[in-house]
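ok trying again, last paste got cut off:
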Amino acid sequence: MPRTRTSRATAALAVTLLALGLPALAAPGAAALDGGHAPTHARAEHAPTTVTVTGDGSATAEPDLAVLGVGVEATAKTAKAAMAAQNKAADALLAAVRKQEIADKDVRTDGVSLGPVYDYQSGTAVLTGYRAAQSFVVKVRVIDRTGAVLQAVTDATGDAGRVNSVVFDLADREPLQRAARKAAFADARGKAQQYATLSGRRLGRLVTLNEGGTGYLTPAPPMAADMPAGGLGGVPIAPGEIKATSSVTAVYELD
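nice, full thing came through this time. structure:
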């Protein structure tokens, strides 16, 4: 069938456009390659089904370290006399600690103070003397010797001795914290697996994992700050246990 004038004009226009590097225009009424229907856009991929869970875990261990807060305090009419009495008591404390085979690196001065002492009479402050004090942090790395060290300190310092605190701990906390994280992760995965089973799906890959927080609990038996010498003789020391906690939030795909 001979070409019409319109067809010849369209063909000539297409050749001209191609020569100029421009895309050719489809002729009006031309058939599409898919049998006459307009091309369809590719369907957007559906986002995978996911499940979000939280996991909690903990781990415990017996402490292997005792941290003692001990010190001395002395009161005298003058500041010089108060400091001298405090220095004598502090020397006695340090000597007693060394005799208990506590290394020098495990003994640290925590604070030193000197101040006036007033007696308030009828609303008037009357200076009565001065109080000097020094506090120490002592690490006992053999738990069973904690009571003996405390007794030695109070025996050596007399009425000037002070026991401010006893805290049990671990020399290295990281292994216990790792165990708590492992337990938290296992708890989260177990929950995700249960939800996958309940929904008739399979547990897929881990998408995200966020640590929610960690905790660390140490037993600390109450000790009176002004407990007199000899007052610890009948007080048993109970180390208890250390507890580390962890929490995580995990997102898994469901296949």
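cool. The chain has a mean pLDDT of 83. The first helix runs from residue 5 to 19.
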